[in-house]
Amino acid sequence: MAMIIGDALRQAFMPKREYESLREEEKAWSRLQRPFLVSAVSLICVAVIVCAVISLKIVSPAVGSRRPFCSDRRLLPLPMKGGRDADLFAGAFYLTDQEIADYYWMVLFVPSLIIFLVSFAYLAAGIAVAYSAPTRHSCLTVVENSYCASRRGGVRCLYILNIIFAIIFGLLALLLGSTLLTLGSSCSVPLFWCYEIAAWGLVILYGGTAFFLRRKAAVIIDEGDQGSRNLGLEMLEANTLAVAVTPDVERRVTFKSWMGSSLLSSDDEDELDTFVDAPYRTNASANRQRVYSESRAMAANYEYDEAAGHYDDQAAALRQQEVGYDPNFVPDSVKSFVVHLYRHIREKNVYEIHQMYETSFQTLSERLFKDTPWPSVDAVVHYVDNDHVFCLLYREMWFRHLYARLSPTLKQRIDSWDNYCSLFQVVLHGVVNMQLPNQWLWDMVDEFVYQFQSFCQYRAKMKNKTEQEIALLRQFDQAWNVYGVLNFLQALVEKSAIIQILEQEKQGIEQFTATDGYDYSGGSNVLKVLGYFSMIGLLRVHCLLGDYHTGLKCLHPIDISQQGVYTSVIGSHIATIYHYGFASLMLRRYVDGIREFNKILLYIYKTKQYHQKSPQYEQILKKNEQMYALLAICLSFCPQMKLVDEAVNAQLREKYGEKMGKLQRYDDEAYGDKLSRRQRYADEAFGIYDELFSYACPKFITPSAPSFDEPLVNYNQDAYRLQLKLFLSEVRQQELLVGARTFLKVYSTISLGKLANYLDVDESTLRMTLMTYKHKTHAVDSDGKIISNADVDFYIDDDMIRVVNSKPVKRYGDFFLRQIVKLEGVINDVDRIKVESAN
């Protein structure tokens, strides 16, 4: 012991960097910590027991003996002249020793003893768990299967319980203990000190146990019993009725069911796929992050910011700068992250999984892996008992980080496809026994579609491809195949039976939306929620392909006019409305597009201030600007401003007011006898449509593989040019509709000849224009019904055009509600001023 103390004193005066270079077992404080804590706990326990015994001796003295530490006052105090008491306890209630003993026994000792007996199991379990950290202790079974354990984790549950009981004993010491001093007995003071010492000793025990559970026991994992076991399918429930999981599927689920054998490894492969390390370039998409987290705010921050962990991260970052990226080097904070994430997934602790996934992963990426990938899966696999399913999830995060911050190579793009194949096959052909946050499940589908889009864009740029890249494209021609992507998404929808679940929810049988897709009965939410988000993924893929009708048909089971699971994750909310609105625009369902764009833009307008510190804030703003551009296009084709909220309209006018004025311009100056001026204004509007569409449209893709036998050319812009051509063709067809709409709003009846003269066209052209107006203002919805988008309705009676008078329904509700709120605020201010002036 003397040697350890000497080492501690010597290390206390060491330079900081030299002390940090010591191994953990060489640090004297680590060796002194446990003996010191054991001694302190023992001392406190002895003090509590001794005080309890003394107080019991005072309460129940032996027959014929005096109460210890109680000095009897032979004479009662007499009142002094002037009415003042001459005793030491001025104004106190005078009780006999027996009365004070009964009071102490019934009011203080017995209730405190009951609370202690109730909480002793949690105190003992907490001490044992904290002392044995980081080894998992069997005392965690004290809180197993309880609600607290299932939601927060066993260690966190013990921490919370010990904190609660520490607060309770502290309140007892402050409130009940002080009452003894007011009773005026000779035994009041000794009983007061006995109770206070015992109560505050328990506060220290419970509080200290909670402190060390929070600081030390966070890395508990059962390494001793499970180090040699392969838990490859521990997250999969055994189910004799389900598809049998063969050893081959346990090792590596192939893609035979949909696209043939695995693309990068043979079926008899024994090792996990490795990655090709190549120089990494900073990508322009480094700021492309997944959009926000779930609407529910997660308050707790995972404690990776302790001093030791911070110094370790600095050393790891310095090492990477000096040596370069080493896929097998795992910093201590990453080890802790992987171990915790694995443990929480096994425990179905959705709260902690979400916090680690959304906060800790981003923090570590920013701190350690700004310009490099995370450690390879082979480097962390032994920290998670070689669990195959967890390795698939880790690789999914690994590739997402790679795409977000770096430029992936072709081999890594194909590796990511292979990993998604294996992961989705596990979900489809096994009974998954884990719960994951909706944010993570949405990111899986979102990233899956994004990487498909990115691969198609990459493959279409053939002009500068090397011979090695062309050879890989030839060899793995099924990687990111459009049929494979669609098959996976559709398979998730069908296998999850999510369409039937949503139908049953309308009948009140299911509560999928009410629970945000989570299964609180102990089941899994993975397949159901993946199937739900896959419908949104199908909408997005079909929009990228230009098949808007099929995309909206895939989304039809989700009622976007109501709140749903898709609104619980802001990323899915924005992606759903953006693609739904764009598809509606291309199908001429302008009213549907305007209505949904208005709702999502109003939502972002009211809530974007809460996302300013989020890494996805820039992405939210970008989609916000794109949807304002799409809304401007919709309103130029279908000027129904009554569908737009005042706040959204004000923002729209500020951003695109001048351009919208040019798109809807039709007057004598622009369209008079001077044809050149009219053409100039038409060309200007045409250019504005081109600009807005190019800015706001998705990045369309050509899914077909290139022809390697022909000269290699870039065709990555072909799909965009085709969609732009179709859109501008629609604009050309509606050029004269602006003028016709302008005059039809003014007149209730007008002859064909007169209107033709105003528009400077002949009557046959006018008839064709009016028929075009009827056609362009009507569309077919998802149910096959014809819907009207017209803001002006009319019919032709012989040579007269008769406009149907349809008075718009004025909405006063919102205006009155806003004024009521303002009036209440003014009344509250007046009342406050009156109160202040009265005081």
UniProtKB/TrEMBL annotation:
GO terms for biological process: formation of cytoplasmic translation initiation complex. Keywords: Cytoplasm, Initiation factor, Membrane, Protein biosynthesis, Transmembrane, Transmembrane helix. It is found in: Cytoplasm. The chain crosses the membrane at residues 36-59, 103-131, 159-184, 190-213. The keyword Heme does not apply. PROSITE patterns: PCI. GO terms for cellular component: eukaryotic 43S preinitiation complex; eukaryotic 48S preinitiation complex; eukaryotic translation initiation factor 3 complex. It holds the Pfam family Paf67. Belongs to the eIF-3 subunit L family. Component of the eukaryotic translation initiation factor 3 (eIF-3) complex, which is involved in protein synthesis of a specialized repertoire of mRNAs and, together with other initiation factors, stimulates binding of mRNA and methionyl-tRNAi to the 40S ribosome. The eIF-3 complex specifically targets and initiates translation of a subset of mRNAs involved in cell proliferation. Component of the eukaryotic translation initiation factor 3 (eIF-3) complex. PANTHER family: EUKARYOTIC TRANSLATION INITIATION FACTOR 3, EUKARYOTIC TRANSLATION INITIATION FACTOR 3 SUBUNIT L. This is Eukaryotic translation initiation factor 3 subunit L. It comes from Linum tenue.
